[in-house]
Design a protein that fits this description.
Helix content is about 35%, strand content about 30%. By secondary structure, the chain is an alpha/beta fold. The longest helix has 16 residues. The mean pLDDT is about 90. The structure holds adenosine-5'-triphosphate. It is a peripheral membrane protein.
């Protein structure tokens, strides 16, 4: 059964003056129970807008979204009981309150009852390694610690659906790995997760499906393996000790998409023929550390999302 059902969802931001911005442009999407759906796309693609509508923080201007059968606009109270929201960065916590106070306060807002709220707060502080700093004000925490408080808060009411907007933003590699373990664990417990991230490795590791979004539209949606097979994304060959002549020969092979050289070489190659030819050149010219990497989400992303001019 679908826990999230989105039909032709749209959101236009209309400023007082000037043209409106279409942040979401007719998104249709269904998410089954126990899925982990990754939302990937460039800055300004519409991912946060979609998350905010699903969590009832923002109204759509067209279309519908239902969570557990409840409409996010007309039945927002029921929807809020089903979701936990994890935001990136400093949004959404009370800096002047301690970690423990933030969790207790949130538990009260969720109507948990003081005994349950206290019990779960202690559980969460322990689980996220916040015990030693539980009575420090959150504004004194590092970004990674703030993220752990966010996660603890979202899980306090044990919601069946978690919406996470860049939850690992600012986490160190250890905390990031801990986060991925947590997602696997939650998935095992039947939790459904919508995860916005710019981290392709994280998405590939934890997501059961990926939605690539740009200009407010879903461009591709499916399991990473399926999407990769469909587009035939280029493979990457890396090598060390590559001569300038070898790099030039590889750059000229039909099927070479890109060659970068910085003492070592990285070539993106389309098709088996280009790959074999490049390997032959590398072996012949005695390159070392030759490695072929299968296409991953980075290649998918680069193929589907057209380059944008970098604009601030
Ligand atoms: N309150 C707002 N008023 C006007 N425009 C907005 C508002 N919120 C978002 N937008 C615009 O809507 C578009 C989509 O923004 P959104 O924040 O959803 O993107 P995103 O995919 O989450 O980007 P990022 O990866 O940078 O977080 C952007 O063009 C953005 O400028």
């Amino acid at each position: 059964m679908a826990i999230v059902d989105v039909q032709e969802l749209g959101r236009v931001f209309t400023p007082r003056r000037g043209a409106g911005v279409t942040a979401l442009d007719g998104v249709t999407l269904s998410i089954g129970e126990g899925e982990v759906l990754g939302l990937l796309g460039p800055n300004g693609a519409g991912k946060t807008t979609l998350s905010r509508i699903l969590t009832t923080l923002l109204l759509p201007t067209s279309g519908t979204a239902r969570i557990g059968g409840y409409d996010v606009v007309r039945q927002s109270k029921e929807v809020r009981r089903l979701i936990g929201l994890v935001l990136g960065g400093d949004r959404g916590l009370y800096g002047r309150l301690t970690a423990r106070q933030n969790l207790l306060y949130w538990g009260a807002l969720q109507g948990l009852g003081s005994r349950t709220a206290r019990q779960r707060t202690e559980e969460m502080l322990e689980r996220f390694g916040l015990g030693a700093r539980a009575d420090d004000r959150v504004e004194l925490f590092s970004r990674g610690m703030v993220q752990r408080v966010h996660l603890a808060r979202a899980l306090l009411s044990r919601p069946p659906l978690l919406i996470m907007d860049e939850p690992t933003n600012g986490m160190d590699p250890h905390a990031g790995a801990g986060f991925r373990e947590l997602v696997h664990e939650l998935k095992g417990a039947g939790c459904t997760i919508v995860l916005t991230t710019h981290d392709m490795h994280e998405a590939q590791d934890v997501c059961t499906r990926i939605a690539l979004i740009d200009h407010g539209r879903i461009l591709r949606i499916g399991a990473a393996g399926e999407l990769l097979a469909r587009i035939g994304a280029p493979r990457t060959i890396r090598a060390e000790g590559v001569t300038a002549e070898a790099a030039a020969r590889i750059a000229e092979l039909p099927g070479t998409v890109e060659v970068t050289e910085q003492g070592s070489l990285t070539a993106r190659l389309d098709g088996a023929q280009a790959q074999s030819a490049a390997l032959a050149v590398l072996v012949e010219t005695r390159a070392t550390e030759i490695a072929v990497a299968p296409p991953g989400l980075t290649e998918l992303y680069r193929t589907v999302i057209t380059d944008r001019e970098f604009a601030l």
